[in-house]
Amino acid sequence: MNRKPTFLARRRKLALATLSALAAPAAGLLAAPAQAQTSEFNPGAKPITLIVPFPPGGPLDAVARIVGEAVRPTLGNVVIENRSGAGGNIGMDAVAKAAPDGHTLGIGALSTHAINPWLYPRMPFDPLKDFAPITLLADLPNVLVLNTEFASQNRIANVSDLIGYLKRNPGKINFASGGNGSGGHLAAELFKQLAGVFMVHIPYRGAAPAQTALLSGDVQLMFDNLGSAAPRIREGRIKALGVTTLRRAAAYPDLPTIAESGVAGFRDFEITTWFGIFAPASVPTAAIDRLNREFTAALRSAAVRERMLKIAAEPAPTTPAQFAELVRRENRRYQEVVRRSGAKLD
Fold it and tell me: 23: exposed, middle or buried (C-beta count within 10 Å: 0-12, 13-18, 19+)?
């Protein structure tokens, strides 16, 4: 026999329903902080912005796009954002001041972290304290190249021949660079110091116009990026004497190193253009480790290596600690190189 609920039973049932309704949002509020902590770095749910502090089209920009594409299956969409200016300082300053959630990264380089701190009287960031290194991406050798006609007329076939000519003809060679304090400028200054010779520096607004000046004969020599110089070398329009790394470039193994020249004082000659990925300093360690794991896996893949070698960039995956030590070492080294060159920028 069915009985209708009593008045008290109905009140009790209504009270329990009310308590359940109130408890649900409270439980959600209690769970919210834990959920927020785990979602700070959430690859795939939010794009990663990879800031390139130089204009599009150069080797650094090309490598950023290669590795950005390679990590999309594991890290989600990677948006390349070019913010050039002040030798890379503008773009890297944006990285240093970005939200430390692992979703804004930057490509720092030899210039931004080792040269600029000694070249500019005021820096918008501290290259050692304001970033968390993730991994070195690549090394790009520079190459010592001459105007072909000049080299032929003066029978300069190697580094020893060049130094002999310079000692007999002080000040008769003009060398080009992409600007005061650029990697090419400092490579030539180091070469001058070690060889005990004098050349006249002609700075240009970038490596491309400097190479044009070399091709036309306005200058006789420059230290150029191997990736950009290689097509002109293959065409015979400029003559390569040696690369600036201690070992030969994997993409061009027939090119000797300057260290192999046999000239006294050049056994340890090395200036390489390196660049890697940085995050803002306070990004959590778990995010740094995840980013390092995915980017280094991409750098070790055969497909990425093949694409990078085509522009003379050699993949160089590291741990965060190894990359941090490289940055510290290079920063100390270039303090003296820049001082001796006398280069300064406002």
Answer: exposed
- Is residue 191 within 8 Å of 162, Cβ to Cβ? no
Measured at the CA of 119, the angle between CA 213 and CA 225, to 5 degrees, comes to: 40
CB 276 within 8 A of CB 287: no
Which two tokens mark 16? Answer: 């329990």
**What count of other Cβ atoms lies within 10 Å of the Cβ of residue 129?**
8
Residue 346: is it exposed, middle or buried by C-beta count within 10 angstroms (0-12/13-18/19+)? exposed
Residue ranges of domains in the chain, CATH in brackets: 48-139+273-341 (3.40.190.150), 141-261 (3.40.190.10)
Supply the mean pLDDT for the chain.
88
Confidence of residue 294 (pLDDT cuts 50, 70, 90): very high
- Residue 269: phi and psi, rounded to 5, are -65, 120
- Of 264, 251, 258, which is closest to residue 309 (Cα–Cα)? 251
In the numeric block, which tokens belong to residue 262? 């046999």
SS3 for 188-251 is: HHHHHHHHCCCCEEEECCCHHHHHHHHHHCCCCEEEEEHHHHHHHHHCCCEEEEEECCCCCCCC
Q: Higher-confidence residue: 22 or 167?
A: 167
Q: Which residues, other chains included, contact 32 with Cβ-Cβ below 8 Å and sequence gap of 6+?
A: none
Contact 328, 136 (CB under 8 A): no
Average pLDDT over residues 190-209: 92
Cα distances from 137 to residues 101, 271, 300, 307, in angstroms, run 21, 16, 10, 13
Q: What's the average model confidence in pLDDT over 213-234?
A: 94
Contact yes or no for 185/106 (Cβ under 8 A): no
Q: Which two tokens stand for residue 108?
A: 């720092």
User: β-strands 272-280, 238-243: how paired?
Assistant: unpaired
